Amino acid sequence: MALSSKASTTWKGNLFQGSGTTTMDSSGLGTFDVTWKARTEEDRARTNPEELIAAAHATCFSMAFSNELDQNGTPPTQLDTSAEVTFSTEGGAHISGVHLTVNAQIEGISEEDFQRIAEAAKVGCPVSKALAGTEITLTASLV
Questions:
Q1: Tens digit of pLDDT for each residue in 62-71?
Q2: Number of domains the chain is built from
Q3: Residue 3 domain-assigned (yes or no)
Q4: Are 83 and 54 in contact (CB under 8 A)?
């Protein structure tokens, strides 16, 4: 089974003064303003590709981790995951890293198993695989 998801962007103007809108076409959940400034400076009124990647990565990791925990016989009560994607213009524009943070409520799991399964989910998550070549770090805590 394969499912394609679609988003689109309309951009007007040059890179530095221009702006655009990104639309979540598959879900119809919204249209978001995007600018270069939102990638390189504080601009909380607009989004950027890195925030969209962060949302995808936090979601994907949570799904993968939940599945790995369930297969271990220790399904999570709750996973709170964030992803921080760092964009740098030094040495050419690029994503320089991703840091995942998860706080998990799980009954009956050892710290050792928890960390091992969290690391496996980080490596096995499809978004992590798509970001191969980017350093991905993880802080995982049982709460």
A1: 999 999 999 9
A2: 2
A3: no
A4: yes
Is the alpha carbon torsion for 12, 50, 126, 63 positive or negative? negative
Same structural domain, 34 and 56: no
Q: How confident is the model at residue 117 (pLDDT cuts 50, 70, 90)?
A: very high
What is the CATH number for 118? 3.30.300.20
Mean pLDDT of 16-25: 96
Q: What is the DSSP string of 5-63?
A: ---EEEEES-TTT-EEEEE-TTT---EEEE-SHHHHS--TTSB-HHHHHHHHHHHHHHH
**How far, in Å, CA of 128 to CA of 125, rounded?**
5
Q: Are residues 101 and 131 in the same domain?
A: yes
User: Could you tell me if residue 123 is inside a domain?
Assistant: yes
What percent of the chain is modeled with pLDDT above 70? 100
* Mean pLDDT for all residues in the chain: 96
Q: Are residues 113 and 79 in the same domain?
A: yes
Burial of 20 (0-12, 13-18, 19+ CB in 10 A): middle
With a threshold of 0.85, does the pTM exceed it? yes
